[in-house]
Specification:
Number of strands: 12
CATH architecture of one domain: 2-Layer Sandwich
Strand order of the largest sheet: 2-1-5-4-3
Structural class: alpha+beta
Length: 402
């Protein structure tokens, strides 16, 4: 026992320095037996436990809610790989139970945390704990606000006195719902890159103080951060351009248009394990309003993603095929998310009709119908058999003579 204490104390001398102690992240150093070797100042403040009280004790004895078996497996993985791994608040929620006393309107009882596991000796790892409660709370509030907007829009529609005014209000509500979807998509696209940047910065700080930060690691981290920041900037530009209304028609490459729509949704599709298949001629073009057609595609694909969320399937597929016949383009988008009953199928383009069990506005496909029929001068309809549902769009190809 005395020998173990001496080993703990000697290791503490190596890592107990002002920056590690005062870094704005939690730092817990563990050995491969889950014994606590170091516990920095941030952890002492947040948990109200002193370093001396926890030193040499097993972390799950101090925090009984921790799944020791799972944590040990993750630590061994990091040690075997010899590189940092991280787990976001989305999946782990929190590792250390810390009460949220500093947020007046918190949606979470405990601090939401990102946890990085950084190996730096043969049997030692540093757990870097980052408070992500504000971001998680903001996302929760955003969802609540979107729901309130949808309810207000619904109430406003019901108060309209004429069919024309009702029609205009429905379109306004659809745009509001689409804006909410856009914010949600941006949040999905940004969450992982922001977590990568945060982990790289925290890793560099700890490695610098442990004097194991080499030029190769530093150069790799800087290049990764620069690439990630550029990705975030490009994502915002893409979404901003997506919501700019087209005043004039233009020649639109359909293959490029579908690639762009899938880019907006790829994070969510990857998370759900959905396989995207397509049969599109790379040279096929159509003279139309680009952003309006893009918006229709995104709404339809997003509906498929929502259907997969409610119908748990092992194999999830979204298939797109495009055919040209005479002066028309026929676009088919098919998913195997469970199908739609025939009595319901006839109603899916009606305003405020939704097949979703919750959080459905019933405006997405209605807006698709309005855009396709009134703006793109085409037709849209749905087919469903067994577990498959297909949305078909018929659009004219040729330029107008006027």
């Amino acid at each position: 026992m005395a020998q173990n204490k001496t080993q703990h104390d000697s290791r503490r001398i190596d890592i107990d320095n002002p920056i590690v102690s005062n870094i704005d992240n939690g730092v817990i150093v563990l050995d491969d037996k889950l014994n606590i070797i170091h516990y920095n100042r941030w952890m002492e403040i947040q948990t109200r436990l002193k370093n001396e009280e926890v030193l040499g004790k097993k972390i799950h004895d101090i925090f009984p809610t921790i799944n020791a078996k799972t944590l040990l497996r993750k630590i061994k993985t990091a040690l075997q790989m010899g590189c940092a791994t991280f787990y976001t608040a989305d999946t782990s929620k929190y590792l250390i139970p810390i009460k949220n006393n500093h947020l007046r309107t918190a949606n979470f009882e405990y601090m939401q945390q990102d946890v990085s596991i950084i190996p730096y000796e043969t049997n030692l790892v540093a757990l870097i704990i980052t408070d992500q409660t504000i971001m998680a709370n903001t996302n929760a509030l955003l969802k609540e606000n979107i729901q309130q907007v949808q309810e207000l829009n619904s109430q406003l529609i019901k108060e309209q006195g004429t069919i024309n005014r009702q029609h205009e209000q429905l379109l306004a509500s659809s745009r509001s719902a689409a804006m909410g979807e856009m914010i949600s998509m941006i949040a999905h696209q940004w969450r992982q890159p922001l977590s990568v940047i945060n982990t790289l910065v925290a890793t560099m700080k700890v490695k610098q103080e442990l004097q194991i930060l080499d030029e190769q690691s530093l150069e790799y981290s800087f290049k990764t951060i620069e690439k990630t920041v550029l990705y975030l900037s490009d994502t915002i530009d893409d979404f901003r351009n997506y919501f700019k209304p087209n005043k004039q028609k233009s020649d639109v490459n359909l293959s490029e248009l579908f690639n762009k729509s899938i880019f907006f949704l790829k994070t969510e599709m990857n998370h759900l394990g959905i396989q995207y298949k397509h049969n599109i001629d790379e040279n096929l073009t159509i003279f139309t309003y680009k952003n309006e057609l893009l918006q229709v595609i995104i709404i339809i694909v997003k509906n498929s993603l929502d259907a997969f969320l409610e119908n748990k399937k092992k194999e999830k597929n979204i298939t797109v095929s495009i055919l040209q016949e005479n002066s028309f383009i026929y676009i088919s988008l098919t998913d195997n998310a469970g199908g739609i009953k025939q009595d319901i199928l006839q109603k899916i383009f009606e305003p405020y009709f939704s097949t979703k069990s919750k959080n459905g506005t019933g405006l997405g496909l209605y807006m698709c119908k309005v855009i396709v029929s009134e703006h793109l001068e085409g037709e849209i309809y749905a087919l469903s058999k067994d577990e498959y549902t297909t949305l078909k769009i018929k659009l004219p190809i040729l330029k107008e003579n006027t």
